[in-house]
Amino acid sequence: MPESPLSTAQAARAALASRLDGIRRDAGLTGQDLATRCGWHKSKASRIAGARTAPSDSDIRAWCEACGAGDQATDQIGLR
To answer: Helices 57-66 and 31-38, interaxial angle, to 10°?
Structure first.
């Protein structure tokens, strides 16, 4: 039985969230540190990291820049 588009989209969002959270951890930042650097409320960073909210391209860029990994932003956007 083929996967439904919704479950495929959810899986892609979860994979992206995991990659972004790994970038944050590699940078040695807490969720609060990341949110502060991005100018976000902590809950936004948490929702993105938990795959409850799909990040926009600008969210991904801000996340990567805040973690000192701006060079990875384009790759993360392309893998969505």
So the answer is: 110
